[in-house]
């Protein structure tokens, strides 16, 4: 990467789309060079907001909205005006932060670097349980209960439908198109609930040229590693990018098409000639892999971790939003003695206010009053851990339902 793309402060530096990373011809390089400075959300975002070829397409939690975000959209970058490098600390230009997709890594970044393993210390009656939950639950499971809340993100991308120049794209309820002849069919989501999975810090990834089971109903291009039995795994929120892509039907690996025309004479680029055979032949040649000549469309899923868009503390999930067992009259007093000065019911319910989010125009009406935010059974529990016990132990005092006092 060149220096200016990260150190430009003028906002005039840009790259030419087919230029393989070279600056666009009309950039005044002298002016840009005379105005270099610290990296910023704008300079890092000039690439990262556009992963997948446009704003908020691939990364649900990185979009142009983060240039001037609302506090409720991202409390660090909005509320406290963090730059990217504030969290992605660099040393000798090694930028810390593991990616979900590519295995290169220059160090990890974690909420715990700044907030410690026991971040809840404000003296509230919830601190004890919240800090204990941090051993099992990733911070953003509670602190970022919906993703793409500032801008809709693409969640379905079917390449097999591309090529129909006559098909008129329709706009969905967020104003996003459902089709583009170059790229195929799309679906978008705004403020959906994440998918939750156990994650120990590692991802399985399908790399270029790697054999896959092309007859499987779905091929996971990235897949979190983790298990309920592993003490270092935590329940972590993900966006799953689903789609349809092409594999080589004989070599059993993914095909790389040549898309963007190199020049006017280009006869193989898909976006010029709309011929997959030619595009795959050329693309695979460019990456030095054999193409058998027959291809097949397969469904792919890609797990993307949600690391940004942390909401203000008062919008974290409440006890009741996960624990159905605390919904009725008995809440904390299932296990603790009643105290005249404490309204247990109120504090058990203090958390994400979906009505407030609705009033700001977010598409979250279906999440209001829900008490099953993370599906305990799908994660390997027998049911609500307050009733059935946690992953390594049951509470010593018997279970909520069968309290001696009842
Ligand atoms: C991928 C983005 C990126 C690229 C490319 C990049 N830098 Fe940096 N650079 C950073 C970040 C992040 C820092 C940490 C301070 C900051 O946020 O600006 C930094 C810091 C620096 C500093 C130290 C500034 C200080 O205050 O201590 C210098 C000097 C520097 N870069 C020069 C360069 C040069 C010269 C190049 C090209 C050879 C380059 N950088 C390419 C991101 C980048
Ligand atoms: C409040 C802290 C914070 C800020 C601010 C922040 N990030 Fe991150 N980012 C993280 C954490 C934590 C991770 C997870 C990294 C890890 O596991 O090592 C991450 C991961 C990433 C990843 C990898 C995503 C993936 O799953 O593949 C990218 C890319 C990234 N950040 C870019 C940015 C950019 C660009 C900005 C500024 C617009 C930014 N970040 C601002 C905390 C932050
Ligand atoms: C010129 C485009 C560009 C710019 C500018 C840029 N990045 Fe990246 N960055 C990439 C690409 C490409 C990757 C690897 C592919 C991916 O993760 O999607 C990457 C990977 C990352 C990762 C994952 C790290 C890893 O080892 O896999 C992080 C974190 C990240 N960038 C943060 C930043 C930050 C912070 C800045 C600003 C200081 C920045 N990037 C500026 C293009 C860019
Ligand atoms: C580079 C350090 C740094 C990293 C990394 C970081 N934070 Fe923060 N965070 C801060 C600072 C500083 C504040 C503001 C002061 C405070 O409340 O402690 C803050 C505030 C917060 C708040 C309270 C916001 C409010 O005012 O209501 C929450 C919640 C939070 N962070 C969660 C997270 C989560 C979740 C992550 C990981 C995705 C994370 N932080 C990563 C430094 C960091
Ligand atoms: C089980 C849900 C849950 C988990 C997991 C969780 N938090 Fe919190 N967090 C909350 C709630 C709820 C509040 C508001 C507490 C209150 O108002 O008493 C909060 C408050 C905070 C605050 C504001 C300071 C304070 O003491 O109120 C910070 C900072 C914070 N969390 C950071 C984190 C970080 C970092 C992690 C991961 C290491 C994390 N949280 C994990 C639910 C959670
Ligand atoms: C994001 C969902 C979520 C939220 C929010 C949440 N919990 Fe839990 N809770 C869990 C999970 C998962 C376990 C099981 C932990 C384990 O396997 O050890 C658990 C276990 C428990 C247990 C029994 C295990 C033990 O030893 O502590 C209690 C008691 C409990 N939670 C109370 C609370 C209270 C009080 C709150 C609000 C401050 C709360 N929970 C908020 C998911 C949640
Ligand atoms: C299913 C039983 C259960 C429920 C429900 C429960 N707790 Fe607890 N709580 C415990 C147990 C057991 C402990 C003792 C320490 C431990 O094992 O975590 C504890 C410890 C605490 C502590 C720390 C006490 C100390 O002396 O340090 C506080 C404060 C607390 N709980 C508050 C609450 C609040 C507030 C709620 C409701 C929002 C609640 N608890 C719901 C079982 C429960």
UniProtKB/TrEMBL annotation:
SUPFAM superfamilies, per the entry: Multiheme cytochromes
Protein name from the UniProt record: Octaheme c-type cytochrome, tetrathionate reductase family
